[in-house]
């Protein structure tokens, strides 16, 4: 019955996915839709990989909750997006309220990332390395990370992610060695393919370590996770978008490895930007040389319950968001933040709002589902 992922792949996306609430896995109806690879070929833990789950006390790592969805992905053959490392929210008090200086907080971040990435090594297609560093007015968010480290917590986090999960795949060059500049090691910029600068010290002929971009691999091939910055309300192309562009610049200027920017896509029926406006804002980031993806899409009704017209508008809004991704080269995937209105975070976080997803609470397909599938 499912087809969103199959169609999305045919349309050129790398995945069509959903988050999975760790508490939902006993619901048989839920699980039968979730497991359908034609519907969802990528999943992400809704809460289990957040800092308060993984390291509730300093030095005590607990992967039991984080592993629930990671194991599901492996059993079902789905890609796993991993979420999330450096984030002000769902951050245990020992980090949030600690009296840190630059050195001690850097150590805390690096230790967390090193342990967590090693635990999940080879399993994650993406890691959301930093989440929500901007506030709603387009300023730096006032978090413990920013107060102690200023913007440096961005490159610190991305460098730590690379150190803990480097690309380890060794390739023999497909082309004859004679076509390569000689000597092989000089200068790297003249090589006919992108070489990852951090690997250059390890180069010795006749082997090269190529960047993941050169060859399409599955995570099973031991490719590192792509490293993402992830945030919400980037869709409106305002001050928050501006500061996020600046953040990507800061990360890149520091020489830190960022592969992508995640647009969470927590949007509102009737005030979702147009397909063209959304494509324009996605391109602000692909122009910086990073890929983009929609990572947490839900489009909520501000007035409940929605009437038939509102459900149609919701479908159009979903089509605009997905359509913008199809329009932009470098927009590589689409993930919804849950698929059934039975289990959405919206009503508890935005009281009086809801019904933001593609299936209703009885697992019936909504007009939004039809709109998305017919766009694909
Ligand atoms: C939400 C979950 O859906 C809720 O269950 C939890 O109580 C709070 O977090 N941005 C993010 C996600 O990056 O991790 C958030 O998930 C939603 C907003």
Characterise this structure.
The chain has helices at residues 4-10, 28-34, 51-54, 64-76, 93-96, 102-119, 144-149, 153-164, 239-253, 275-286, 308-327, 346-349, 367-375, and strands at 15-20, 42-45, 79-86, 126-131, 171-172, 207-208, 226-231, 260-263, 266-268, 291-300, 331-336. The protein is of the alpha/beta class. The chain has a single domain, classed as Alpha-Beta Barrel (TIM Barrel). The strands form two sheets. The protein has an eight-stranded parallel β-barrel, surrounded by six helices. The protein has a two-stranded antiparallel ribbon with strand order 5-6. Helix 6 runs parallel beside helix 8 (153-164) and helix 11 (308-327) runs parallel beside helix 13 (367-375). The two termini are 15 Å apart. Mean pLDDT is 89; it is low at 169-221.
